[in-house]
Amino acid sequence: MSVPLEQYLVVGAILFVLGAVGFLTRRNLITLFLCAELMLQGVTLNFVAFSKHHGQMTGQVFSLMIITIAACEAGLALALILVLYNSRRTLDVSVWQDLRESGLEQTIDTEPLPAPADEAAMPRLQEAGKMPTRRRGDSYV
What we know:
The chain is mainly alpha-helical. It has a domain at 5-93: Helix Hairpins (Orthogonal Bundle), CATH 1.10.287.3510. It has three helices and no strands. The protein has helices at 5-25, 29-54, 58-88. Helix 2 packs antiparallel against helix 3. The longest helix is centred in the middle third of the chain and has 31 residues, at 58-88.
C-alpha cells in the first residue's frame, strides 16, 4: 500500500506552519528553538517525499544534510541558551534587546514581562554526600 505524495506534503506543510506560528508568537528561547527544529523537520519530510516520488536520491541527501545541521544547531543553541540564562536568569527574548546592532530601534512589547521567580521558593538539591534532613514519619533505609 503506497501513501500518495500529497499526504506527505500536507503533513510536512503542517509541521512547518506549526513551527512558524510557534516561532513568531512565543517569547521563550527554548520554545523558539524547538519551533525552529519543527520547521526543519517539515522541510525534511517534504524533501524525502519528493525524492521518493521522483525516484532520485537528491532529496534524501538534502535531508541528511538538514539533519546534520539540525544536530549541530541543537548543540550550539542549547549552549547559547545556558549562557544567556546564567547571565540574566530569564529565557524571555524581550530581555535581550541590548544585543541588537547599534542604531536599530528597540521593539516595544505590549505584554508585560512575567514576574521573576522567587529564589527562596525554588526547590534545592541536597549537597552531595549529605543525608537529607528527616521529617516526622520519614524512614530512610
